[in-house]
């Protein structure tokens, strides 16, 4: 069966095209640290082959370029207007979907627009507002704590340094990198479950620990690419390369993927597995960017 990628074209539509020749040994400049290392076996749609460090770097960067063409509109899928809103939304996104967070935050930010307001919130009232996101008691405790820390230690402003952000309650490296990359323009890798799953499927790393994953992937790419690389990988993981049943037969980077065949390879069946705008469905944001080709999500409680 042929591998047919799907690329979003226009408002909520998708176009199917044949994958381009994706040979690993393409021409490209790399740093001296990317010199050939001991070979390792990589199995893709065309069978097993050995891959040097140089070939791995080239393949990884080729995948990034391919994903940039498929998802030129890749973006953080949380609605936010400032760094405080992004920080809060990212904390709320743990163990739930960005869609559910986006449906919850309008009322939350209307009630508590600033760190000072949220720090002074009644805990039970705050819990009820964020209840739809799950684990609302623990999340409310984090929001109260980080808001108080912003008020008392940072003058009511979200700091723009990772070492400061990770001192806030409920904020780890993943959350800090989301805020830095998307509110401050500081490059960072967002190693969430989608990111980790895909980079392991692509044999970019074998690490499971998020910090080790971050370090190994960072070594494959220029720092300037880190934030957008994260968005592209997460977009692909949510839309095509699912955890349980990846849509291999509709994947635009199938020729570059060592894990091709783990999912559905029949193009027609695979196409039915596509999600969000790739499958003609609403996205996760109620207020997506202007260049998003899909439909906005519906507010909480609204019929879709």
From TrEMBL:
The keyword DNA damage applies. Residues 1-51, 277-304 are annotated as: Disordered. [4Fe-4S] cluster binds at residues 241, 248, 251, 257. SUPFAM superfamilies: DNA-glycosylase. Residues 92-239 form the HhH-GPD domain. It catalyses: 2'-deoxyribonucleotide-(2'-deoxyribose 5'-phosphate)-2'-deoxyribonucleotide-DNA = a 3'-end 2'-deoxyribonucleotide-(2,3-dehydro-2,3-deoxyribose 5'-phosphate)-DNA + a 5'-end 5'-phospho-2'-deoxyribonucleoside-DNA + H(+). Its cofactor is [4Fe-4S] cluster. One of its GO terms (molecular function) is endonuclease activity. Keywords: 4Fe-4S, DNA damage, DNA repair, DNA-binding, Endonuclease, Glycosidase, Hydrolase, Iron, Iron-sulfur, Lyase, Metal-binding, Nuclease. Binds 1 [4Fe-4S] cluster. InterPro entries: DNA_glycosylase (IPR011257), Endonuclease-III-like_CS2 (IPR004036), Endonuclease3_FeS-loop_motif (IPR003651), Endouclease-III_FeS-bd_BS (IPR004035), HhH-GPD_domain (IPR003265), HhH_base_excis_C (IPR023170), HhH_motif (IPR000445), Nth (IPR005759). Pfam families: EndIII_4Fe-2S, HHH, HhH-GPD. Its EC number is 4.2.99.18. Belongs to the Nth/MutY family. DNA repair enzyme that has both DNA N-glycosylase activity and AP-lyase activity. The DNA N-glycosylase activity releases various damaged pyrimidines from DNA by cleaving the N-glycosidic bond, leaving an AP (apurinic/apyrimidinic) site. The AP-lyase activity cleaves the phosphodiester bond 3' to the AP site by a beta-elimination, leaving a 3'-terminal unsaturated sugar and a product with a terminal 5'-phosphate. PANTHER family: A/G-SPECIFIC ADENINE GLYCOSYLASE/ENDONUCLEASE III (PTHR10359), ENDONUCLEASE III (PTHR10359:SF18). This is Endonuclease III. It comes from Streptomyces hygroscopicus.
